[in-house]
Design goal:
It contains 6 helices and 7 strands; from the N terminus they run βααββαβαβαββα. By secondary structure, it is an alpha+beta fold. InterPro entries: Acyl_CoA_acyltransferase (IPR016181), GNAT_dom (IPR000182), UCP028520 (IPR016890).
């Protein structure tokens, strides 16, 4: 009954897409093209396995990425320092309440605090947000403000959390982390080759 968090594999993208689009109103739908773009560009894209089955996923971007989310842009405008942005987390309905979300947030924080002073995310306000706000509050997130997302007319509570270990890691290692497995970043796929003349 253990939970394993690991980098996503390309052949799992169809399953990730189905999880996303069956998650309900608390998450925006995706199409295969946009998910593949996330696969190629996301700094953090991990899945959870429980009992050998896909139980969820989490996608995150560093503040210097070219991510085009309006919520990501909101954080870039509001925050003076760099940050790690959780774009989306989805846990399979049959696995909710079983610790998968907490395992993801622990893993994402372990990744982020080596690289960023803050972690950010949003919770949609219009679809019964109390449980999600309580979950994030229990991890130390606080609301910085609210943002209404254009084109989808969804209001989001914009949350941030200070990562207390970042200053020590930055002072001690100066941006050059030791080469140990748990501190390594995601090995992103090589970009697709463009045909000549395009």
């Amino acid at each position: 009954m253990s939970i394993v968090i690991r980098d996503v594999r390309e052949h799992e993208l169809d399953s990730v897409l189905a999880l996303n689009n069956n998650a309900g109103l608390a998450i925006l739908p995706l199409d295969a093209h946009r998910l593949h773009l996330f696969y190629e560009t996301a700094e953090y894209f991990r899945v959870a396995e429980r009992d050998g089955n896909l139980a969820g996923f989490l996608i995150g971007f560093g503040s210097e990425s070219q991510h085009d989310s309006s919520n990501f842009a909101w954080f870039k405008q509001q925050l003076a320092s760099s940050f790690f942005y959780i774009d989306r987390i989805v846990v399979a309905s049959r696995r909710r309440g079983g610790g998968v979300g907490r395992a993801f947030y622990a893993d994402a924080q372990s990744y982020a605090e080596l690289r960023y002073p803050q972690m950010t995310c949003e919770v949609f306000q219009d679809h019964g947000a109390d449980a999600a706000l309580l979950f994030h509050g229990s991890f130390g997130f606080r609301e910085l403000g609210q943002n209404t997302m254009p084109h989808v007319d969804v209001r989001a509570s914009m949350l941030a959390k200070e990562l207390c270990s970042y200053a020590w890691v930055s002072d001690t290692y100066g941006g050059k982390l030791p080469d140990v497995a748990w501190a390594r970043g995601r090995q992103r796929p090589a970009p697709a080759l463009q045909p000549a003349g395009t």
